[in-house]
Amino acid sequence: MSDLSARVRAALRERGMSISAAARAMNFDKGYVSRVVNGKQRPSAALVTALDNLLGTEGGLVELHTAMDEDDRSRVAAVVGGDRYKADASTVRALSDVLAAQRRLDDTLGPAAMLAPTLVQMDTVVSLARDSDARSMPADVRDGLKLVAAEWVQFAGWLRAEARDDADAVRLLTEAEDYADEINDGPLAAQAANFKGYLSRQRQNARGVVRWFLTAYNTPGAHPAQRLGDAAQAAQGLAMLGERDSARRLLDEATALSHRAEIETPPGTAYWLVPSFHGLNIGLAYLALGDTTQAAASIRDALANLPEDQQGAEWTHEYRAALAQAEGES
């Protein structure tokens, strides 16, 4: 279910590296590497570590490989293979752990290597969740499957957004919002709206930026760290529209959330929202307001404090470009 082989195969293809070249670089037998990459053999821990180093995934491939133990793999394989009655709390936990590992792997591999296998997994988990009502599963298992399915749909929507498959991204994110409402999950609903705001910003649609980030900001149950980021990004949109006073008021609201955002652990669906991260989006707002010195300082500090596995993430390109602009105009 982790589909490590599919992700490695896509990552090698994206980098223009053949299996033979990869095997030589890692000093592993070509036939063995080929069988692993093509999903015909389970990799050893040593090969996973070597692939992780080769592809620069900063431990992401290792985390994905170890997200399920042999019991988990057997259980999930049986459930996915049709024995849905075997689904239990351990199945839900295993699926959730795999998804968490994949979210982090996206930071190093990027959407091109992640998207296709994620969509296959999403369809499988959504099917499990839909079956859970008809099969009279225990409530905790049924609710857990629905939650992990909703999160998988949202993650797929984010990957589509990163890849700028805009129409499919919006469709999936809307589905994620609907799932989140069905299971009464405020943070998940807010994050799906947030990703729509991200898409609007990529399109230079300032009204869309304001609309979707304010929707996320005002979503009942949203985490303080989410609301802080949403307020800052809505402020950027307001500044883009020339509504400077409203933008500054919203920035003040974002700042007022800093303490609560710092002391409350962010939800798994927005794991990156640690205190130092917020300087990125606050910096974008300052840049839109024309305060290039403050923008540069905020973005520069936040980028420097990103974890190693996020330093090269595709989503950082926007912030690095903004930093270059701010420094050039200061």
Sequence of secondary-structure elements: HHHHHHHHHHHHHHHHHH
Overall residue-averaged pLDDT value: 93
Structural class: mainly alpha
Strand content: under 5%
Helix content estimate: over 70%
Q: Largest sheet, if any?
A: none
Please identify the top-level CATH class of the largest domain: Mainly Alpha
* Radius of gyration over C-alpha positions, nearest whole angstrom: 21 Å
CATH fold name of the largest domain: Serine Threonine Protein Phosphatase 5, Tetratricopeptide repeat
Please identify, by name, the CATH architecture of the largest domain.
Answer: Alpha Horseshoe
Please provide a written account of the structure.
There is one protein chain. This protein is mainly α. The chain folds into three domains: 1-65, 434 Repressor (Amino-terminal Domain) (Orthogonal Bundle); 67-183; 185-330, Serine Threonine Protein Phosphatase 5, Tetratricopeptide repeat (Alpha Horseshoe). Helix content is 74%, strand content 0%. The protein has helices spanning 4-14, 19-26, 30-37, 45-55, 60-65, 70-80, 89-109, 111-134, 139-162, 166-182, 186-202, 206-217, 224-240, 244-256, 258-263, 279-288, 292-304, 316-329. The relative contact order is 0.07. The model has no long low-confidence stretch (mean pLDDT 93).
